[in-house]
User: Which sequence fits this backbone?
């Protein structure tokens, strides 16, 4: 017996929105691209989801109280869903102090984990946050990094423990088998989208033809998303960023990061980068 | 606060009703006369009720509501006039009152046939202006600044309207909605207080250790029902401009409905249709505007000035 939630999990700026655009177009099955401001897959840490499922205003709770109620929240969301319910998540897979996972297997249909070369992710994340590269690299390298840890203010999202890049990847790849984690590399989505997205569709268990998958890939191409953002603005673009969809390529880091910046990332994350095929045995960064 | 000691019962008013409690509620205004709602300590036996909805922390059925907050209390609300509280051992008394004032009273008002919208209401010259919208969207901070500029606070957190005359909240004969006064405090985060130039040093946190505070409004609290002149739905967008767009016709209703306080709960309590009817009447009788802004791109001072100008436009 499985749940209904399909986790679209990733470290930030690793193709999560692109994948959501693909899934939205796949489910919609329309003859034209789905509007970018109506993407499926809600934010799995949205306060509104928490408040509705628990019946408690999250602003009345301490972060640890919120976390303790999140497994119940996801079980409730799963139980009230008919068919797959897509939730986006950037947090690491983690456990509560009592040993229970925050993301319960009972609520889970499967997990799509999207990974991207952290050198490119750093460049994209810096643009997204409108922060200097060194500050973003510090976040990506910070053990146990918490996003939105502010307790003197409130945002529309709950606090989430993203951890550092390697910890994030390893947490999901090391999750229990019942989480059914299917790993996709951003670079494979670029290089061979039909294969990468097709495997994801089969992992989720959606009954879609190759023609439907190819059309959804076309409707969620970088050029299409960028064109829509230019025309109508994208509500998920942070106010401080100039655009959400910027390059949509791999390897751009070579023209952006200094040697010291790239080294700081590679040194910290070389084990996981090697495991995912971003480094060769000699420690050279591979162009995928 | 003890469930074992008999203590004098106290009466307070909030949202147009009088509640009689076995514990002091320093954040509320004292009341006299007959109580609409009796609050008692009691041991909670799981009620034998076919629940219509079971959330993570609540259960609901027509006329029945149970809220369980771990480490604080179980609250049972029946028929809009009775609350039984079963406190946890040595609960944080501030927390016990916080959930009572909000989630519990919210459910009770729904049982009494009220429409509750998230947000706050300010008043000036006998007319009330409501700010609703997603959380957070600057509703309370705007109300706090307007209070510093001569407006009076009517409600914060949520505000309620109802057709049910027995509740004390009613729509007046000519169809113009009335909003009842909540209680004389705003709940504000420390960062917002800093923006308002207010120190939190002398303020009471809503829960021990939390950086969110009661900001007393005794001198600028409007303790009477007032006509609602306009509702502004505050939303955030990612542009460096503030836009105010008036909703027309059926758009008004569809714009308001998403901002009901715990909207699914009303249906579970069997009050969904009642709320829809009140919402439709509300939409037909007040101006509804959608305000899009961004607090990172538009200075707060400019936002407040624009909103004040907007409110003046709706003043006859």
Assistant:
């Amino acid at each position: 017996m499985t749940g209904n939630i399909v986790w679209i999990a990733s470290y930030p700026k690793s193709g999560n929105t692109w994948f959501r655009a693909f899934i939205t177009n796949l489910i919609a099955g329309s003859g034209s691209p789905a509007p970018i401001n109506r993407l499926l897959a809600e934010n799995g840490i949205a306060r509104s989801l928490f408040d509705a499922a628990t019946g408690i205003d999250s602003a009345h709770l301490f972060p640890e109280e919120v976390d303790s109620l999140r497994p119940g929240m996801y079980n409730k969301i799963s139980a009230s869903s008919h068919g797959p319910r897509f939730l986006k998540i950037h947090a690491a897979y983690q456990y509560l102090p009592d040993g229970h996972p925050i993301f319960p297997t009972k609520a889970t249909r499967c997990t799509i984990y999207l990974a991207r070369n952290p050198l490119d992710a750093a460049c994209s994340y810096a643009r997204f946050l409108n922060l200097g590269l060194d500050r973003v690299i510090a976040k990506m390298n910070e053990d146990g990094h918490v996003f939105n840890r502010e307790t003197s203010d409130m945002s529309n999202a709950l606090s989430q423990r993203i951890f550092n890049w390697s910890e994030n990847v390893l947490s999901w790849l090391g999750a229990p088998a019942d989480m059914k984690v299917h790993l996709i590399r951003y670079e494979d989505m670029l290089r061979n989208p039909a294969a990468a997205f097709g495997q994801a569709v089969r992992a989720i268990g959606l009954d879609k033809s190759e023609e439907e998958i190819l059309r959804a890939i076309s409707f969620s191409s970088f050029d299409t998303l960028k064109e829509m953002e230019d025309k109508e603005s994208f509500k998920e673009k942070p106010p401080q960023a100039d655009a959400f969809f910027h390059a949509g390529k791999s390897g751009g880091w070579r023209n952006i990061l200094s040697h010291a910046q790239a080294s700081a990332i590679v040194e910290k994350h070389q084990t996981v980068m090697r495991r995912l095929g971003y480094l060769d045995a000699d420690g050279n960064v591979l162009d995928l | 606060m003890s469930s074992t000691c008999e203590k004098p019962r106290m009466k307070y008013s909030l949202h147009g009703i009088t509640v009689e409690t076995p514990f002091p509620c320093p954040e509320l205004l004292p009341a006299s006369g007959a109580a609409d709602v009796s609050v008692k300590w009691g041991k909670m036996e799981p009620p034998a009720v076919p629940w219509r909805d079971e959330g993570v922390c609540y259960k609901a059925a027509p006329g029945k509501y149970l809220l369980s907050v771990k480490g604080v209390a179980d609250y049972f609300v029946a028929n809009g006039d009775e609350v039984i509280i079963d406190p946890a051992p040595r609960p944080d008394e501030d927390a016990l009152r916080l959930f009572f004032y909000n989630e519990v009273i919210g459910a009770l008002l729904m049982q009494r046939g009220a429409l509750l919208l998230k947000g706050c209401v300010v008043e000036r010259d006998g007319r009330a202006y409501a700010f609703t919208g997603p959380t957070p969207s600057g509703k309370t901070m705007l109300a706090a600044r307007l209070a510093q500029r001569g407006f009076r606070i009517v409600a914060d957190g949520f505000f309620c309207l109802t057709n049910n005359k027995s509740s004390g909240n009613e729509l007046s004969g000519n169809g113009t909605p009335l909003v009842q006064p909540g209680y004389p405090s705003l709940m504000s985060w420390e960062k917002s207080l800093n923006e308002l130039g207010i120190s939190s040093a002398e303020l009471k946190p809503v829960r021990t250790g939390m950086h969110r505070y009661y900001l007393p409004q005794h001198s600028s609290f409007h303790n009477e029902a007032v006509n609602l002149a306009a509702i502004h739905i505050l939303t955030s967008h990612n542009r460096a401009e503030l836009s105010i767009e008036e909703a027309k016709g059926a758009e008004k209703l569809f714009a308001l409905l998403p901002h009901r306080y715990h909207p699914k709960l009303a249906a579970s309590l069997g009050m969904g249709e009642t709320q829809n009817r009140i919402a439709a009447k509300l939409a037909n009788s007040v101006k509804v505007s959608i305000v899009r802004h961004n607090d990172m791109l538009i200075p707060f001072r400019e936002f407040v000035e624009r909103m004040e100008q907007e409110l003046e436009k709706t003043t006859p």
Summary: The longest helix of chain B spans residues 93-111. Confidence is low (pLDDT under 50) at residues 164-174 of chain B. Residues 119 and 157 of chain B are 5 Å apart (CA to CA).
